[in-house]
Amino acid sequence: MRDVAVIGVGLTKFGELWDVSFREMMMEAGARAIENAGIDGKQIGAMYVGNMSSGQFIRQEHISSIVAEHAGLLPIPSTRVEGACASGGLALRQAVIDVGSGLHDIVVAAGIEKMTDVLTGVATGALATAADQEWEVFVGATFPGLYALMARRHMYEFGTTEEQMAAVAVKNHHNACFNTCAQYQMEITVDDVMKSPPVTLPLKLLDCSPITDGAACVILASAEKARKLTNTPILVAGTGQASDTISLHSRSSLTSLQATIEAARKAYKMAGVKPDDIDLAEVHDCFTIAEIMAIEDLEFCKKGEGGKVTEQGETAIGGRIPVNTSGGLKGKGHPVGATGIAQVVEIVQQLRGEAGKRQVDGAEIGLAHNVGGSGGTAVVHVLRRGD
Amino acid sequence: MDVGIVGYGVYIPRYRIRVEEIAKVWGENPESVKRGLLVEEKSVPGPDEDTATIAVEAARNAVKQAGIDPQDIGAIYIGSESHPYAVKPTATIVAEAIEATPDLTAADYEFACKAGTAGIQTCMGLVEAGMIKYGMAIGSDTAQGAPGDALEYTAAAGGGAFIVGKNGSETLAAIEGTYSYTTDTPDFWRRDMRPYPRHGGRFTGKPAYYKHVLSAANGLLRQLQLTPQDFAYAIFHQPNGKFPMHAAKELGFSREQVAPGLLTPMIGNTYSGSTMIGLAAVLDQARPGERILAVSYGSGAGSDAFSIVVRDGIENKRDAAPKVLDYANRKVYIEYATYAKFRKLLVK
Amino acid sequence: MAVPRFWREIPNRYNLVGARCGNCNKILFPPRSICPSCRRMGKLEPYRLKRQGKVLSYTVAHVAAEGFEDQVPYVLAIIELEDGPRLTAQITDCNPDEVKIGDEVEMVFRRMGEESQDGVIYYGFKGRLIKP
After folding, report:
1. Is the pLDDT confidence value at C32 over 90?
2. Coil, helix or strand for A385?
3. Architecture of A4-119+212-234 per CATH?
4. Total domains, chain B
5. Interchain contact A199–C (C-beta under 8 A)
6. Which chains would you list as touching B if contact means 3+ CB atom pairs under 8 Å?
7. Has residue C7 been placed in a domain?
8. CA of C132, closest CA in chain A: separation in Å?
9. Would the pLDDT of C132 be above 80?
10. CB distance from C121 to chain B under 8 Å?
11. Which residue is closest to A255 within chain C, CA to CA?
12. If you average pLDDT over residues A184-213, what whole number do you get?
């Protein structure tokens, strides 16, 4: 496979975008990415759009056609990619494979979710369809419920505390304050998290990522082409994807995501890097416990110490391994299908040195980790400066 | 008659509401209610319980106690006035849940509070005729009482299941006779599509409950040429604590004969479950050779009387499943607001 | 859940009927049509699991899944059955603060929801603590 690089990135504001439609959001992120890449739309060979559930959120399937049409890019092939909350990461991977294979030189990887056109209850019900409908949701499980089951077990096995989980939310909200695209630009305290309303204990409201509208887009090119188009190509050095059982109860461990471990192993190997080499990471913190488990499974710390290292500031900007400098799903927002792409937008901006107040000094290698459901799908990408 | 009880099981939900709690809402004097009805509290089904789930718990206990293969059950009848569906049997749900399907007959019965004992009689007939090996009769209810009605103090939830088979080494009690007394007496009813029953107040007493219970009991005693002194225990349908005590007195039974099977003061009136749970409570403590009279009553109206003689088999079987008192003593009190939520009395 | 979809799973939901692979002896619940270990070499047959198990993890849900709004706070747990398989189930008839990891439970038959007020009623399993 030939080398592939990111040459342009674009993001909408994340949040409750009442006056913006699905179509408008996608065009906004796309136009920004194309502009950022400095290319003409006619150079684009194909597009992959990550989207979890437009059918449930806006009762519209077949969005691949809509996106290509509204971008004025007909008749290029456009493909929707679905893997629950990992849809964006999977779309990126498909785009990487497309360019890597030599089929197209320039390809779009996008992600989008319009979640606020339905009431909150409908939205959470739609999200729950990414869990096992027959053996989890039927008996009363929700996503916060499933992650709470992981959290309780993590507390039991490793002594992780609710305060340590709260520290994830505090850090990510802090980072989001420096991100103008983030849904929440406000500081919170551990006490705020601890006193927030119970959702599925031990998880409380401020342990949970919000419901968000948003779209994100990256433009990929072959490394060869990228070097002609930009001085700061960001190479997709490694990509890894893995699957696990859809239901949490069918897995041997409740405190690790095997799909994350496997996807990371592949991505590290392909990139020829070790966890220690990573300068910063965007990980899938749909709930605070998810970030703790992710940094363990990605081997940024020992198993069971994710809470402790977070509390000690090792994952803060300026810490040993900054995690979720964008604010993460928690602070920036979690438009599910867009999340995997938005993570890569952040990594690219960081590696280019364009992250402003949240810049990680001297960042050379970054990692993006995107999870579908409670861990049935995980996809990891390692990116590095290509100049 | 050569049939008997092969096993029995009961179930009573854990929630209770006290008379005081209900009386407080309606501005009544709890002491006079308790004195008038001889009831202290009643069982309340949890939000995930209904007549079918209660019947399944009781039926599983009965199968466990009987130690039989549920595939040998040839008939299941469930008596209730609170079947979860108006049309669609509860009996199929229970049959499936105890793995008795598919080679059996099943149906739901309705005869106010005596539909469960009507099922016992049907099973007796089928067993005696050699049509089935075992028959299961269940009385199960989540009784409805309109908010503010006198019934609200007693309308409770619970169920009992009895497995009937030919007398033999596995029967724990023989049913030596049954007698029914039936007339058209509208003392209590619920019209189609209406949520709560209506009743005739004091008319439910003398011309209804007492007339049928006493007539059925006397009819059975006459038929078997027995007297109250031949019985160690007697169970009468117990819509409240008072009626069965009065009936016993009229018939010449002592308080001691009635007390072990009188559950209503503790758990309320479990309607179709009432006589069945009372009988189970007596079987939980009776000794081989002792004779038991059980008389149900269903408004509308009718009574089924049974004479039962405890056999040696009971000693080996009765510890295999939870007993009536295990359930009666397992309780969590709730206040009226929670009760209203559980019983879906709140309009949303 | 549509009626046929619920109906197909009645033996599994009412009686914990799972599957056992005649090739590797692994017991599976919920049942599958292919043994994940032996794949096409597997020989799956229905197998009724024992109702006893223990709590591996639990959460107290204050925000309900659709259809369980009237039951909050309810306890949702992952239970490891005596036969090996694990499942997700509510713990019924308990005070939410009395459930602990390691608690013994038995699976009981409960009303799980309904299609609609006019629709069919779904029954299934919940766990109940076995008190020593």
Report:
1. no
2. strand
3. 3-Layer(aba) Sandwich (3.40)
4. 2
5. yes
6. C
7. no
8. 22
9. no
10. yes
11. C57
12. 98
